[in-house]
Structure formats: structure tokens, C-alpha cells
Input
Amino acid sequence: MSLDVSEDLLSKAEAGEVTDAEFLDCIKQSLPFAWDLFAKVADDLKNGVVSSSGSTQFADNTTPPPDEQARGQLLRALASDSMRAALERHHGVKFAFQNCHRIAAFPVSEVDSDTYRKFTSPRGQLLNQSPELKDC
Output
């Protein structure tokens, strides 16, 4: 199961739509490691922190999760279109993902940029591989 959904939130979902705030709170409570990592990368972008490749056009994380539970949280958040979209709306960025831990935040205005296309390209994916990441 990806999220710990309260009975109240489940009832609301069964009766109709839930708000982004309610959904985001469920993500935050269920996936605290992923929540904090998304927030850090988005904050790094907003604060002009230089990415691992030396760019200020995006911010990224290259530190592997501390354990399998944390890795699972990150993968669950990234694998869900609805969770990723809610997190992107909340932070006002576009998140991109290359492997078990390399997540990047781009300004929404840069989604059609050369930098974004490079990061999300097959070449970018291949160049970001290493033997240590094979089983991540």
C-alpha cells in the first residue's frame, strides 16, 4: 500500500473529491522521507543552490536514501502520477527522476528547455548509471 489513508479521508474520497491539501497531508504523513526530500530539492531550486552538475537551472539530490523503507517511500511517490502532480503543484516545480534517488526540481517554465530535455533523455539516463545503483 502506498499511503496510510484515514477512515475520514477514505469516506471523503468515496463521497466525492478531496482537496489537494487533504491529499498532500496524507502523503506527508504516509511518506515522510519522500515528503522531506521533495521539499528540500524544491527549496534548493528556489534558493539557487547549484545542482550536482554545476547548474543553477535545476536542483537535484544525488544522495541515496538511508534505507530500504526510505527508498520505498521515494519510489512510491514518484511512481504515482497523482502524488507527483500534487507535489509539483504544491512546490510550484516540475520534478524529474532518473534512478532510485536522483530526483531533480525544475522551474515549470523550463520544462521545454535543453537542460530539462538533457536530464530526461535516454542519454542522460544512461550517463547517470553506475554499478552501485544497479539494484537500487
Summary: The longest helix spans residues 32-46. The mean pLDDT is 88.
